[in-house]
Specification:
Largest sheet: 6 strands, antiparallel
Structural class: mainly beta
Strand content: 35-45%
Order of helices and strands: HEEEEEEEEEEEE
Shape: globular
Number of strands: 12
Radius of gyration: 16 Å
Strand order of the largest sheet: 1-5-6-11-8-9
Distance between the termini: 33 Å
Length: 155
């Protein structure tokens, strides 16, 4: 039985221990999640991102969808990063944001791994509600740019 935290740690092991560097990234036209009124406001941005380029030259884009109810479809643009067309995808999620793994439901929160195809300079992806998604864009085999070059990815 794995806790949701252990599942996320498993998913992100390479992201945090792959070496490399953090690169600029931003979310354009981010969806807002409405909440009850608090001292900090009554809404927050649904998507939160972080991006790194690891020692092998792979662009790793981590996207957290903080919306408890809504899937968010977005276009991912890896900027000037010259990437292969196949993108490795892993998603940690459960049926609801209240789900957790226990003896009765050991698979309530899981990692779903798949591959996607990036077209031209972007990838359109639907980030499930209350999920953590890792998109891994391997460098293009020929003509890959240096990992020292500044890159900005956009979601």
């Amino acid at each position: 039985m794995s806790t949701p935290e252990a599942v996320v740690r498993e998913q992100l092991s390479d992201f945090f221990h792959g070496g490399g560097q953090v690169v600029d990234n931003e979310v354009k036209d981010n969806a807002e999640v409405s909440t009850r009124e608090t001292p900090l406001g009554s809404s927050y941005e649904a998507l939160v991102t972080n991006a790194t380029v690891d020692k092998g030259g792979t662009l790793n884009l981590l996207v957290v969808n903080r919306s408890p109810d809504d899937d968010i479809k977005s276009r991912v643009e890896p900027g000037s990063f010259q990437h292969a067309t196949t993108v490795d995808v892993s998603v940690v999620t459960g049926r609801t944001y209240h789900d957790f793994n226990n003896a009765e439901h050991p698979e309530a929160v899981t990692i779903q791994k798949s591959r996607a195809t990036a077209h031209d300079t972007s990838l359109t992806w639907t980030f499930p509600a209350h999920s953590v998604t890792l998109l891994r864009f391997p460098p293009e085999k020929t003509g890959a740019t240096s990992s020292d070059e500044k890159r900005t990815s956009h979601v």
